[in-house]
Amino acid sequence: MFRSMPRKILLVIVLASIPWVALAATTKEEAPEDSPAVPSGPTCQGLTALDDSTVESGYGFVPSATTGTYVQEFESKDLGGGYLTSVCLCFLKTRPDYDIDFEVVVYGDSNGVPAAEPIAAVAASQRGVARSKKTAGAFVQVPMPNVPLPPGKVYIGARWNPSEESFLFICNDQSPAEPKVPVFFIEDRAKAWTSVFSAKDPIFRPHRAIMVRAGAEAEPAPVKPVSIVGTASAAPVP
Ligand SMILES: [Ca+2]
């Protein structure tokens, strides 16, 4: 039974607090192209950003999935050093509750796609996630425990349990002027990563980036709390 479940991964355009059943009647053109940039929360200054700060939509997973991951491709040399020390992420959630648990995950490269296993996973949480695209845009900043960056490409993003954190979405950027950044996703019933550029779901056609930002330092830094404005906590996963 479990194996026969459809593998189609998600994905829904995120719409405010409109009930799920109403989603089909409304479309993504309601996504504001000029939504406010980073309305509150950490500024994530100094981190490498591949998005333009405005939220057009979000990516999630069907609630029947028990693990789902989205990661974005970065070049390690562009992150400012050899040790990953901070990651910022933007989420939104269209159904209660609005306090979430997730992991920040980091993967090395395997022939142009993320490797099978992460090189780091850091448990984190956020309270009071934005409930709509119009209010989304604030980042939660998660300190990373000096994760040594591999040479070449590195893939950084979030993993969560869609069965427990249902209707949770990672913010994305669809602004046409922005470059198209490789993003990959996988869920527990899939055997391999899927690129948003090869995914059949039309939700990915306007894709530009997900709102994940990363910062590194040249030398290992003392693991210290960063400004999280009381909205997040984080701890390394053993
Ligand atoms: Ca945008």
Could you describe the 3D structure shown?
There is one protein chain. A 7-stranded antiparallel sheet has the order 13-12-2-10-5-8-16, with no helix packed on it. Strands 1, 4, 11 and 14 form a 4-stranded antiparallel sheet that branches. A hairpin with a 6-residue loop joins β12 (183-187) and β13. The chain has strands at 57-59, 68-75, 83-89, 91-93, 100-107, 109-110, 113-114, 120-126, 140-148, 153-160, 168-173, 183-187, 194-195, 209-210, 212-217, 232-236. 43% of the residues are buried. It has one domain. The chain is 0% helix and 35% strand. Mean pLDDT is 81; it is low at 1-39 and 225-238. The protein starts with 56 loop residues before the first strand and ends with a strand. It is mainly β. It is globular and about 40 Å long.
